[in-house]
């Protein structure tokens, strides 16, 4: 579209950043300088903004927002007043953005406008806030942590200090559960999700909004099995391994949560963690209820918390215990979800320093034993059983026998 000479449009934010990084940009956001709402409508744009003027392009349907400034009017991240007018400059609009790497613009000829040094920080791999106004919006802490997970960039010292101040003064307490989960879920799907949690921990925000995760750091484990020793470090290694494998959100969340019970291990039995599996259920449920975690993520995580040690010991389980594991996980009806738990357990095993490529046959064994148990024709067995009251027991015994037969053939004695 050709705008009148007094009106100029710029691509801003993530699309500019990703273009400079050589990444495929997502949706393009535009800022329009020198226009009024009426002028936009006269050009055929459709208004859609509620809090401030945003318009849809009549052909591309991309969002065009009028250049605006903002000021803090109340605590929390909803407490802002916006001002949009033809005299608001592009630099004023960019100055309200969170990070320098997100405060660049590109005009319609492809020229970059970079008033805050975003290109230099992009080249150096630094996350740096644009202005002290960063401290007015606690969501920006979550966004910075998510960008750390996506790009692997480091925080500028002054930005980290500002985030620490925001955590100390309670600004992060204004974050609502839905937004914390939204940002965390997006971070879990990034290339290195540990960056999200380590960034929150570094600034002190994790202890306030994710205390169940924060409590894992500093908890020792047996060095002969966990060379990294620290439970929090182990969980981060396992989580990054899950990301490298390309696992879906539910599996990654299960990996994040699998060792929550270790933060509750009595001091007199450390660094061993006998009984950490059932201890992990309560903090998991509390975390999921507070953040309103979706049911599929919650249920897979609960199963992993309670059962991952049994999976690791698959070679030593008796056939009857193996069937109980299948039943406790509803694996007979939902083998796909059981497979997700096996994936999470593999990440747990390989999320240890020096064990990243270690074989994990337990997953293959349990998959094969589940296939054997599910091969039973329960209908035919029921038809040939006179004592219907004993039918569940008879079916269980038949499945145990199938599991035992597989073990005799395939597992070393």
TrEMBL record:
Q: Which domain of life is it from?
A: Bacteria
State the InterPro entries in the record: CCA_bact, HD_domain, NT_sf, PolA_pol_head_dom, PolyA_RNA-bd, tRNA_CCA-adding_enzyme
Annotated keywords: ATP-binding, Hydrolase, Magnesium, Metal-binding, Multifunctional enzyme, Nickel, Nucleotide-binding, Nucleotidyltransferase, RNA repair, RNA-binding, Transferase, tRNA processing
Q: What does it catalyze?
A: a tRNA with a 3' CCA end + 2 CTP + ATP = a tRNA with a 3' CCACCA end + 3 diphosphate; a tRNA precursor + 2 CTP + ATP = a tRNA with a 3' CCA end + 3 diphosphate
The residues the record assigns to binding Mg(2+) are 27, 29
Binding residue positions for CTP: 14, 17, 97, 143, 146
Q: Name one GO biological process term.
A: RNA repair
Needed cofactors:
Mg(2+); Ni(2+)
- What's the Enzyme Commission number for this chain? 2.7.7.72, 3.1.3.-, 3.1.4.-
Q: How is the cofactor bound?
A: Magnesium is required for nucleotidyltransferase activity.
Please name the GO terms that the record assigns under molecular function: ATP binding; CCA tRNA nucleotidyltransferase activity; CCACCA tRNA nucleotidyltransferase activity; cyclic-nucleotide phosphodiesterase activity; magnesium ion binding; phosphatase activity; tRNA binding
Q: Which Pfam families match?
A: PolyA_pol, PolyA_pol_RNAbd
Q: Which residues bind ATP?
A: 14, 17, 97, 143, 146
Question: Taking every annotated instance into account, which residue ranges of this chain make up the domain HD?
Answer: 231-332
Matching SUPFAM superfamilies: Nucleotidyltransferase, Poly A polymerase C-terminal region-like
Protein purpose: Catalyzes the addition and repair of the essential 3'-terminal CCA sequence in tRNAs without using a nucleic acid template. Adds these three nucleotides in the order of C, C, and A to the tRNA nucleotide-73, using CTP and ATP as substrates and producing inorganic pyrophosphate. tRNA 3'-terminal CCA addition is required both for tRNA processing and repair. Also involved in tRNA surveillance by mediating tandem CCA addition to generate a CCACCA at the 3' terminus of unstable tRNAs. While stable tRNAs receive only 3'-terminal CCA, unstable tRNAs are marked with CCACCA and rapidly degraded.
What more does the entry say?
A: A single active site specifically recognizes both ATP and CTP and is responsible for their addition.
**Subunit and partners:** Monomer. Can also form homodimers and oligomers.
Q: What is known of its domains?
A: Comprises two domains: an N-terminal domain containing the nucleotidyltransferase activity and a C-terminal HD domain associated with both phosphodiesterase and phosphatase activities.
| Matching PANTHER family | MULTIFUNCTIONAL CCA PROTEIN
Q: Which family does it belong to?
A: Belongs to the tRNA nucleotidyltransferase/poly(A) polymerase family. Bacterial CCA-adding enzyme type 1 subfamily.
Fetch the NCBIfam families from UniProt.
PRK10885.1 (NF008137)
Question: Per its record, how is this protein called by name?
Answer: Multifunctional CCA protein
Q: Which organism is it from?
A: Paludibacterium purpuratum
Gene this chain is encoded by:
cca
């Amino acid at each position: 579209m050709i705008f009148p000479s007094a009106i100029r449009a710029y691509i801003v934010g993530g699309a500019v950043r990703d273009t400079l990084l050589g990444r495929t940009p997502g949706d393009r956001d535009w800022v329009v300088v020198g226009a009024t709402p009426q002028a936009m409508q006269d050009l055929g744009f459709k208004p859609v903004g509620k809090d401030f003027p945003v318009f849809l392009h009549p052909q591309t349907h991309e969002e065009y927002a009028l250049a605006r400034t903002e000021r803090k009017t109340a605590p929390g991240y909803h407490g802002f007043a916006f001002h949009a007018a033809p005299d608001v400059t592009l630099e004023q609009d960019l100055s309200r953005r969170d990070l320098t790497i997100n405060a660049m613009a590109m005009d319609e000829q492809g020229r970059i406008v970079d008033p805050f040094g975003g290109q230099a920080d992009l080249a150096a791999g630094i996350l740096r806030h644009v202005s002290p106004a960063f401290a007015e919006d606690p969501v920006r802490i979550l966004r910075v942590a998510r960008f750390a997970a996506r790009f692997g960039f480091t925080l500028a010292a002054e930005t980290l200090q500002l985030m620490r101040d925001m955590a100390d003064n309670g600004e992060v307490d204004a974050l609502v559960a839905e937004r914390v989960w939204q940002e965390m879920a997006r971070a879990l799907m990034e290339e290195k999700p540990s960056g999200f949690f380590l960034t929150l921990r570094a600034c002190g925000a994790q202890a306030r909004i994710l205390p169940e995760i924060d409590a894992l750091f500093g908890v020792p484990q047996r060095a002969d099995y966990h060379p990294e020793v620290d439970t929090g470090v182990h969980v981060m290694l396992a989580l990054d391994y899950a990301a490298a494998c390309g696992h879906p959100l539910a599996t990654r969340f299960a990996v994040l949560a699998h060792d929550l019970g270790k933060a509750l291990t009595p001091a007199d039995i450390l660094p061993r963690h006998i009984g950490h599996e059932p201890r992990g259920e309560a903090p998991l449920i509390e975390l999921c209820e507070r953040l309103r975690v979706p049911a599929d993520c919650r249920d897979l995580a609960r199963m992993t918390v309670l059962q991952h040690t049994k999976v690791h010991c698959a070679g030593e389980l008796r056939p009857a215990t193996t069937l109980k594991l299948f039943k406790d996980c509803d694996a007979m009806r939902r083998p796909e979800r059981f497979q997700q738990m096996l994936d999470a357990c593999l990440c747990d095993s390989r999320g240890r320093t020096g064990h990243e490529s270690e074989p994990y046959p337990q997953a293959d064994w349990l998959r094969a034993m589940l296939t054997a148990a599910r091969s039973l024709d329960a209908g035919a067995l029921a038809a040939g059983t006179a004592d219907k009251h004993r039918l569940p027991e008879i079916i269980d015994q038949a499945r145990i026998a199938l599991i035992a037969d597989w073990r005799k053939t395939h597992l070393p004695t």
